[in-house]
Amino acid sequence: MARIYGEDAPVKAAFPATAAGAAKLPAAPRAKGLLLYVHVPFCRSRCHYCTFHSQAFNQVTFAWYHKLLLQEIDLWGRRLKNPPLRTVYFGGGTPSLIPLTQLDQIMKAIRKAFNPVPGLEATLEANPDSAHDVSYFRALLSMGFNRLSLGVQSFNDLDLHMLGRPHSAAMAAASFQAARQAGFANIGLDLIWGLPGQRVNTWIEQLKAAANLRPEHLSAYNLTVEDGTAMARMVGEGGDFKLPSEQEQGRMFIYGSEFLESMGYMHYEVSNFARMGFVSEHNSGYWTGSDYLGLGPSAVSTIGRRRFSNPRYMDEYDAYVRGGLVGQDHEELTDQDLLREMVMLSLRTAKGLDLKLFREKAGYDLVKRQEKLIAALHQKHLIRISHGHLRLTKDGMLVSNVIIRRLAFDDD
Q1: Fold held by 34-287
Q2: How many other CB atoms are there within 10 angstroms of residue 142's CB atom?
Q3: Domain ranges (residues) in the chain
């Protein structure tokens, strides 16, 4: 679920027109290469907890989207002058709904417009109901996909029904096995914890079911009940849909992390675990501040200091792509914005915040400036400082939003 979304950006010209009317190009992405995110805004049905931009799949709308996406890929390839490409990530929505012929066309267009670096990581998010046979996964491999992210969410059928997922636990396991049989050597599973009625022991059972399949990567996301969703209505109505207490959710996070680490998974980011050598390059690029380009409706991009987003609705997206307007509206990130994001993103990772690098960029020592706060957090065993990095402990990760907000924004 490595997704980058956003609403329409403020009106500013990201690529000001020259006197001749040609767009002024941004600086080329850094040498390590660009992260490319392709948003696929189609699902068979909306999950009860979902707030991401998506719509029901139909052939007419998809054909419209497909044509525009190919145009947008070509536009950016020319604008950025065939830049080096480090990762490709198809997210959604449900990318596994894309017909194979059209998916192959998209991948070929990407390889033509961009310059894939050796070892390019290419990920496709898939749902078990739309990706379940060996021939399908072999076709993905032949297109250059080498990483799969399966949206399992739960191995309990009652939980899946409550979440509005269109598959069963047996289908999820069968999808994983088919992908493995096809030759995928890098498979990640997405799970959700903190569900109504869930307890520590039932969450650990979910993790055991996942670990028994021996995936290379696991993402475990805490359920967030967003206003306007079916889940919000169910929880609001009470009855059996009662969320676990904060204390119970805290135990789920701590004990779940400890269990996965005992099974050989490194807890490398608040919600992500991986076997050695299988950390997600794409996700890690976001957390280390790499340039990323988002394609498709509602996708967000950050290149250099410029952040911009595509319109979320197809008719507006059509106008932007056909008119060559994608990337024209943007916000310019300030030094302060970049420093705050450095703190926010770094502290989500096991590596933590590089204090020397921060001092070089900020011109001041964060530990000295926030001496009282850092001492209090350390005393409460919420942070630790070692080898020049400030890191959150597991207890600190439980309240990471509060700690990050204090460190990133209370710096005056």
Answers
A1: TIM Barrel (3.20.20)
A2: 13
A3: 34-287, 335-412
Residue 106 DSSP class = H
- In this prediction, residue 49 has a pLDDT band, given cuts at 50, 70 and 90, of low
Nearest to 296 by CA among 179, 115, 125: 125
Quick check: 47 pLDDT over 90? no
pLDDT digits (tens, 9 = 90+) for 208-253: 999 999 999 999 998 887 777 777 777 776 656 788 899 999 999 9
Report in angstroms the alpha-carbon separations of 411 from 257, 372, 374: 31, 12, 12
pTM listed for this prediction: 0.89
* pLDDT tens-digit readout, 24-45: 444 444 447 999 999 999 987 7
Check if the beta carbon of residue 109 is closer than 8 Å to that of residue 153: no
Kindly write down the DSSP assignment for every residue of 169-238, as one continuous string.
HHHHHHHHHHHHHHT---EEEEEEES-TT--HHHHHHHHHHHHHT--SEEEEEE----TTSHHHHHHHT-
Asked if residues 76 and 110 have their Cβ atoms less than 8 Å apart, the reply is no
**pLDDT bucket at 7, cuts 50 / 70 / 90:** very low
Q: How far apart are the first and last CA of the chain?
A: 35
Q: Do domains 34-287 and 335-412 have the same CATH topology?
A: no
Answer yes or no: is pLDDT of 408 > 70. yes
Helices in 46-153 by DSSP H: which ranges? 59-79, 100-113, 134-143
- The CATH number of the structural domain formed by 335-412 is 1.10.10.920
User: Rounded distance, CA 356 to CA 168, Å?
Assistant: 49
Q: Which residues of 63-100 are buried (b: 16+ CB within 10 A; e: fewer)?
A: eebbebbbbbbebbbebbeebbbbbbbbbbbbbbbbee
Distance CA 70, CA 76 (A): 10
d(CA 153, CA 191): 4
Q: Whole-angstrom Cα distance, residue 227 to residue 233?
A: 8
User: What is the chain's Cα-based Rg?
Assistant: 22
